Every structure is written in structure tokens, then in C-alpha cells.
Amino acid sequence: MAQLAAPAPPRPSRAAPVDDPFAALNPQQRAAVMHGDEPLLVLAGAGSGKTLTLAARVARLVLDGADPNRLLLLTFSRRAAQEMARRAGRMLHRALGLRATQPPPQLPWAGTFHAIGARLLREYAGRIGLAEDFTILDRGDAEDLMALVRQAQGWAAARTRFPLKATCLAIYSRTLNRQLPLAQVLQEDFPWCAAWHDELKAMFRAYAAEKQAQHLLDYDDLLLGWHQMLADDGLAMQLGDRFGPVLVDEYQDTNRLQAAILRRLKPDGRGLTVVGDDAQSIYAFRAAEVCNILGFGQQFGDAARTVLLERNYRSTQPILDASNAVIALAEQRHAKTLWTDRRGGSRPRLVTVADELDQARWVADSVLEQREQGLALTQQAVLFRTGHHSAALELELARRDIPFVKFGGLKFLEAAHVKDLLAVLRWAQNPRGALAGYRVALLVPGIGPAAARRLIDAMAAAPDPAAALRAWVPPPAAASDWAALVGLLDVLQSDASPWPAELEAVRAWYQPHLQRLHADDAAVRSLDLEQLQRLAAAQGSRERFLTELTLDPPEATSDEAGPPHPDEDYLTLSTIHAAKGQEWNAVTILNVIDGCLPADLATGSAAAVAEERRLLYVAMTRAKQQLQLMVPLRFHVGQQHRLGDRHLYGGMSRFVTPEVAALFDRVAPAAPAADRHDPPLPPRAAQPLQLGALWD
DNA sequence: AAAGCTCCTATTTTT
DNA sequence: TAGGAGCTTT
Questions:
Q1: DSSP A209-258
Q2: d(CA A690, CA A181)
Q3: pLDDT tens figures, A422-466
């Protein structure tokens, strides 16, 4: 929550210099910390003390007189922002010689691009013709809105099936974030939808118009709006003045739109620090451009300085050797070889098992064995490419009573009952939000799509939507249930209703609907709503709660086990994406076979395969002491596959070449030698930057 | 017009 | 597993 509080900063008193706060840094880290005003690129290998270095640089800037309130610190995830703000604060606290009772200095402008964008837009809304009461759509909401627009266009019965709402939204988002024409994005990223170019364009125009009319912003609008704000000279000047140094973490995962924002914020790069590792770029599907980090030097010419952090403080040398060998075969990268002076440590293991069930049993055995040897479950993690790869393991763990928490692929906000409840709050917050209203109206028995539509249209047409709501006459069958809803909305609208108590009123109203709609598992779903109420209590207002929940949804799903106690020992299961930036003593990676890693859907282009390689690299470099790669000989591919429905794939991942495999200890029956290699990368085409109205 | 039913088809990772 | 389309019954 670092970015929420904005207390006055303590004056940096130069009088009490404690011992050198940067004494523990190695020479390269120190160079990055002490570097002056010119643009700086810190290429930080995995485990090379990146967070420490960035935090130290923040501390150094403040010690040299920078105002913490004007320091913009952009991170990839909310978790990273908190961690960074916490460590920088601690370092400053020491360096300034503050007493233990004094709070560490805060960094109010530390956060994700999206969160900072939301804040700036909220603040400047009045001046840029944006409704001040806008609400933010999470992905599910955006998809629902897209679905409404999709339906209105009526292309249902056609020669080929129109793309699903989720696909439509993905195309839309990719086009904005890559700042490229729709046709090109379709051709490169969604070739199977290319035939729908004109329809999609019309649909996106309608989608944008709907958002405007309903005072809604989606994730992309937070960046787009920020970007457009900076296009205005007056505002750009003001914003430029407002922020001093700008530091960007995980720069390899920024996209073109984000890079454009930075360029407007710091045109000549002075005061700009970016930190990242091109070898860990794994978010191309979100339009991240490795070119951003690869081309940083050229962008600012001779002025830019690059510092390389290669010394690894996390892993043993045998683990680093294997990781280096995997990434060494990648082209298009800043050459970088991690090393450590920590000798010893066992070689990583390459474990061959018969199939997924075998794999699950083996991993569960291994986890318990490690714990016998004194390694707590919290020091162990199992990583995998996609959310459902852990299904068999989850069953096995549950069967053996091994507690675990799964990160990635979160479901909480996507569950229908959670969305229902939030829709009520959103509608109360923003009566013009037809999307929320439509959803809520449909909850009332007797009201279907047609009646809900009429209601929404009536409200949209009226000068005072709240009055139109009260005046609306529902179908006779819905009369009494409708009256109850109107009563609830009255309570929520009145200034008297306090937060978060009003959520209880919403739950009370929703309870019968929950019973009716989800009779079989209403009790379980009710638990989720309790969880929601706990989250609500942590926020000061309804508006804040809705914004926070959209930008920072709960990270882990706790499945049947319920939320784990903080002090309980539990194993971590995580997608590789969600494991970024973390570390464990013992790491096991599932399904290191072709078809899973690389995912067979991602083998279409050389760039996609290269990203899968980096994904494996990221997974391997999470391990401090023990690393195991699992290779099931047979892998069951579910029904969702073309032609033959239950294909059995096989074969070691193409990334584990014989040379790489030689760095592992082999466990279990003889595995087939992998003799496939990457196809060579074709030269990359230069992509012209396109600005302006995309949908016209 | 609403609601409940069947049947078919899907590209993974997340702010 | 759900999303989406199309059907039938109320």
C-alpha cells in the first residue's frame, strides 16, 4: 500500500551521516547506485541483488536531496512496489540516522504503471474531460462489455465462428499496447481471426464508445489516458515538474505504450533509471517488447550508461551452470554470465518418470523427504507452465494432507457470485455503469435480457439516472423482488450508509439469490463473500475498495483448503509467471517436455520459442540450493485438441540439449536423448510506430 | 419475454 | 469447464 499514504517527508538532515549505508554493495552495484543524472540501464541478472541496488539508489538520491514525494518508482507488480518501498524506506531510515520510533520515509509514488496511471487520471480527470466518477473494469468486466457489443453487432450465424469475447478483448488490448495497426496485430498474433478485421474494428469502436458513455476505463485506458495526458504540452510540463527522478523496475517487461509514456516523461533520459534482465522477459503475450531494453542504449545515444550485474547471490554454482547453459543458446540478448563465489552444492537433477501420476507421486515424496531433512515447506516450490499442469499434483497433495498454496491463474474475482456482489457496489458507485446495472438487474427473478436492456436504456437516456431507476416499472412478475433491490440501492446511495458496513446490507440482499442460483454450493460461495468483506474492511471507502480490488486482486487461490494461516507451513505451487522475482531453497519444475515447455501453442514463431526458453530460465534461477526438472515420458493432452483427442506427447524439452543435460544428475530409467534444436531466428523487421486514432 | 434445456467448441501466461 | 447459440416450455 506504499502508494496510498502520502505523509510529509522528513527533511534529509545531512548532519548525521551514520556509517556508509552502501558498504555492503559490490563494485558494480555501487556504480549503479552512485551514477549521476544521465540515463542509466542496469542489466541485473537473476539473483544479482537487483532490488537491493534499486532501493539503495533511491536512498542515495534522497540523501543527495531528492524529494521522496517527487520520486516516481514504477514496478511490474504491486508486490514488487511494496517490497521496493519497504527496503528503500528501511535503508533511508538507517542512513538518515532516524530513531527507532520515527517512521521510515514513505515513497508515495511507488507503484505499477497501471496504478500510477489510475491515480493521475483520477486527479486530473476534471481537466482532461474525463468523468471524475469513472470506475475501472477488470478483465472479466471488460470481457462482459465486449460481449454486449459483440452481441449487438449480430454476427452470430456466419461462415466461421466469430472470435470469443476473451479473444476479442485480447486483440483489442494487444493492438493498443503494441501501438500498431489492427491488421498487423491480427496477422502476426491472431492469424485465425484475420478474416474478421472490419467487423472487429467496428466492434472496437463501439466498445470504446460504450466505455466513454458509461464512465468506464479498462486496464489499457489507464496507460492510454496517461499517455494522452502527456501529449498536452501544458499538462506534460506540469507532470514533468511534479516528478524528479524516475526509476523503472522489470524494464524488460514494459511494452511500447509504457515506453512511450517514459519517453514523454523524460525526453532526453536525464533522471531516468531502468532496471531489468532481457533474459527474463516473459510477458510478450501482454505486448512486452524486449526491444525496449535491448535498444535502451541506442535510444539515448552516448549519454546512456549501462551497468551489468552478473554476480549472483542466490544459487549454487551447479544450478547457475545449468541455467547459463539453457540461456546461452538464445540469440538476441545482452551477453551475461552469472557467477557466484559460493562453492559446492549438488548438481541439479533431471528426473524421468512414466507419466503425470508418477510425477505427482514422485514430487510429493520428494517434498516430504526434503522436509524430513529439515527444509520447511515454505522453502520449497513447484513451478509449471500453465495453471492446470498442477492438477494431478494438487490431488496427490490433498490426498496426503500436504498443505499448499497455489499462485497464478486466479479465480476469485472471476467467480460469478463475487462478480455479482461487486456489480451492486459498482452500480451504486456509478449509476451510469450500465454493465454493472445490467448484471444486477438480471439477478432479479422475472427480469431477463429484454427487461434489463429497457432499464439500462431508460437510465442512459435520463438526465438523472437514479431517478429513472426509481421510476422504472419492472415486469409484474418481478415487482416485489425489484422493490427490494431499489430499497438496497437507496441505502447505498444515501450519504448515511457507512463503509464497510454497507457491504453487509448488500450481502443480506444477495443471500436469497445466492441460494436460488447456486443451491448446491451456496455455502462454499458464501465463504468467498466473507473473504470479500474482510478485504473491504481494509479500505477506507467504497471507491477505494473497488479501485484497489481491480488493480490488486488477491494473489493466491486457496482451493478447498481454505486460506492458510500465515504462520502455517505450506508448499508453494505457482505458474512460472507468478514466480517471478521470488526464490526458494528447493525448486521443482513440472513437465519439462516439448508441448508443455515450450507449450505447443507457442512454437509457431521463433520469437515465441525464445520466450519459452526464457521461461525455463526464469524457473531454474528461482532455486537457491536444490533444483529438479521433471520429465514425464507420457503426457496426457486433454480433449481440447484438434483431431485425435487424447494424444500422448513425449520427449524431453528441446531446451535440454545433450550438452545441457550433461550438467544434471540423471534420475530414473533411461530417458530418450533430445537431439532437436531451435530453428535459427529470422532477422527482425523494423516496426514503424503508429500513433493516432486507431479505429478510424 | 423469461428460463431452462441441449449441443458444440475452444489457443497459456496477467496488470 | 464455460461460453455461446439455438431450441422448447412456461
A1: HHHHHHTEE-HHHHHHHHHHHHHSHHHHHHHHHH---EEESSGGG-BHHH
A2: 7
A3: 889 988 888 888 888 888 998 888 888 888 888 888 888 888 888
Å between A679 CA and B12 C1'?
Answer: 22
Nearest nt by C1' to A142 Cα: B15
Q: Are strands A40-44 and A272-276 parallel, antiparallel or unpaired?
A: parallel
The pTM of the whole model exceeds 0.90: no
Least confident of A74-78, A80-84, A329-333, A498-502: A329-333
pLDDT of residue A646: 44
CA–C1' nearest nucleotide, residue A193? B11
A298 touches strand B (CB under 7 A): no
- Residues 74-113 of chain A within 7 A of strand B, judged by CB, are 76-78, 112-113
Give the model's pLDDT for residue A416.
Answer: 80
CA atoms within 13 A on the CB side of A180: 19
Q: Report the candidate in A138, A134, A141 with the shortest Cα–Cα distance to residue A120.
A: A134
The C1' atom of B5 and the CA atom of A490 lie apart, in whole Å, by 37
Rounded, the Å distance between the CA of A476 and C1' of B5 is 25
Residue at minimal CA–C1' distance from B13?
A577
Q: What is the pLDDT of residue A166?
A: 87
- The mean pLDDT of A76-82, rounded to a whole number, is 81
Q: What is the pLDDT of residues A395-426, one digit of tens each?
A: 888 888 888 888 765 567 777 888 888 889 98
CA-to-C1' distance for A539 and B3, Å? 39
